[in-house]
Amino acid sequence: MNSKCIIVCLVMLSIGFHAKAQENFDPDKKFFEAREMALNGQREEAIELALKIVEKYPGYSDVWILLGRIHSWEGKNDSASVYFERAIEESPDYEDAYIGYLDNLFWAEQYDNAEKVLDRAYKQFGEGASSQLKYRKSRLYYYREDYKEAIDIAESLYENEAKIEGLLSYIQRLKRLTIKSAVGFTFDHDSFEGQISPWQTYSLYARTQAGFMGNVIGRVTHSHRFDGYGTQYELDAYPSLGENSYAYLNVGVSNASFFPNYRFGTSIYWSLPKAFEFDIGYRHLNFSETTHIITGSVGKYTGNWWLNLRANHVPSSAGGSISGNFQARYYFKGAEDYFMFQFSTGVSPDEEDRDLQSQLLDSYRGRVGYQQLWSPKWLAYAFVGYSYDEITPDNYRPNLNISVGTEFRF
């Protein structure tokens, strides 16, 4: 009888120890498991595990933040706000909770609530606020269309080398929205080896904001080529299509044989996650015959660099042709100051200093240059390029191009 009691007691103790072992777990290990589940799309499982963690460790703010982010990703913004509030309640001096909360309210377009949370954060951290929190302050100004305040903060962050993904792309977007009006002048000189006389091309343009059409640019280009003169008139527009997208429209006419009789172009640009950009478009050039061109590019902002690869396809019954252009910019203290280099094959429909009418068999071009905003109102640039164009299998046309320009903003 005594032995039976001893056995029963041992079994009960074993069950108790097992239950206790189940209750006690490493919360950090479980948190990382839950986060991995959430990132892999197992959000229901992640929520279940996260709730188990905070049931035993209610002061674990990172778990409350994770619960808030998961619900925000699911579009359950009000529920997410509850979790972010709990995270701030547990750790009012933990900035990640405010940042997650602000992201959630931005996605929900609850800008008044976002302003209240931002005020709470700045009361807590003051001048010690991190670059991530300051970036959210800029975003709030952006969403409320106060672009001047937004870009002042963003450019200050860039000058102080803040490590914020997509900051350059964001500043470029703000630039399109803050520059109200400008006038500019460009000059291109092309010299050739052989019997072709040099070309000179002058361009005068004016730019302004025009409501839903965004930046609208009127341009007059006058050129001396092949011992003749000609002028092209163009109009560009960049209408906004939402927070992360905009369009490009171009129309032009000319009385010169070396410019299209008329031209039309359009593209749609998207800003993508991880600081990528993508566009796809169409160009229509009418000379004695019409040329249709499909164009597209992918770009990436990484650190101080912007990298872009563009391809152009001219369809035809023979299969068509493809040209390509790779361009890189290295930005210095601001989003207008950069060194650029590019390499291209074929001729791009957007390079007006090139011979768009000749059927070039092979063309290669290298180009380097520098642009700088000298003052809040004056910008200037200078580029030099060399191209090697195959006119016929036995006829090549080397070309040295020098391009300078300036712009006054007001």
UniProtKB/TrEMBL annotation:
The keyword Signal applies. PANTHER family: CELLULOSE SYNTHASE OPERON PROTEIN C, TPR REPEAT-CONTAINING PROTEIN MJ0263. InterPro entries: Beta-barrel_YaiO (IPR030887), TPR-like_helical_dom_sf (IPR011990), TPR_rpt (IPR019734), Ycf3/AcsC/BcsC/TPR_MFPF (IPR051685). The keyword Transmembrane helix does not apply. This is YaiO family outer membrane beta-barrel protein. It comes from the Bacteria. Residues 1-21 form the signal peptide. Residues 180-351 form the YaiO beta-barrel domain. Keywords: Repeat, Signal, TPR repeat. Pfam families: TPR_19, YaiO. Coiled coil: none annotated. PROSITE patterns: TPR. TPR repeats lie at residues 61-94.
